[in-house]
Each structure stands twice: as structure tokens, then as C-alpha cells.
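Async update (no meeting this week)

Hi team, since we skipped the sync, here's where things stand on the single-chain job. The sequence we agreed to prioritize is pasted below, unchanged from the tracker. I ran it this morning and attached the output directly underneath so nobody has to dig for it. Comments welcome in thread, and please keep replies under the output.
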Amino acid sequence: MGTIYLMVPMVRKGGYIPFFVIERKRSEVALLNLIQEAFINRVSTRKIERLTRIPVIECLSASQVPEITWGLDERVEEFQTRRLREEYPFLWIDAIYEKVRVEGKVKSVVAMMACMVDMEGQRKVLAAEPMWEESEDTCQEFIRKLKRRGVRRVGIFI
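Output:
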């Protein structure tokens, strides 16, 4: 359809941003989140490019996917190191196995998960960390990391 040039009126105080520009920005953020989620779920950049072949976003190329997903490492680091509350009424730790590519080979990796439920019934993931094996030592280290991040008292631990 092509480029649309907008003439935005100048005002003395504040500014003027048309409603359709704001709505477009929200949809672009949603699209970027969708692409990041697909990347996290190991969808290849070529498949992401094919998935986005709809008229609104068909200009997305496979080379743009790494640019969009660039900030994910920082967000993961922030999540994994954020300070946790001292007390949780319910806390459970579990492990799931995922296949990941390491140095060109697919290996099975354990993802340790710590989840909590607050008094309002809201469930949240407190921590998620990949490990090479599920053992007593790795579980203890995972719990020690939770303690270093601030967890002190737990009502029910599963």
C-alpha cells in the first residue's frame, strides 16, 4: 500500500498525536512480543518470517528477527536476579525437561521452576533455571539461590 505521510498540527503547549498512531504503536509492541515468544519457543527465523507473511507485516525479514529478540538476554538476566519477597504462603519447586541445541547437538536439559501462590490465589513463577541434571545437589543449589535472592519464610513447601 505504501508510505503514508501525516501532517501533524503544531500546538503552543503539549502536542498532538492522532489516536490511530497510538493504536498502531500498541499493535507493533504486541507483534514484537509475539516474535520474541516464537523465538523463545525455538521457532526458526525462517518460519517466523513465513508466519508474518500477512499484508500488515509482510515486510518483516528473517534478518530482522535477531534485532527484535536482541533484548531478551537482558530481560532474562533481570528476571533471574531480581530480589524476591521474604515470605510466601505456598511455594513449590518442580522440574521439566526440554530439548535444547548446544554446540550443534540436541541435548535434554532440566529446567528447574519455583512457583508461588499468594493469599489472593495468584500464581507466579519466581525462578526458572536450566540445569544439566536433576539431582539432590542441583535442587539444593536452586533453593540456596532462592534464599540469596531474599526468600526466608514459606508456609507450605512442595
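Quick observations from my side:
The chain has five helices and four strands.
The two ends are 56 Å apart (CA to CA).
Reply here if anything looks off.
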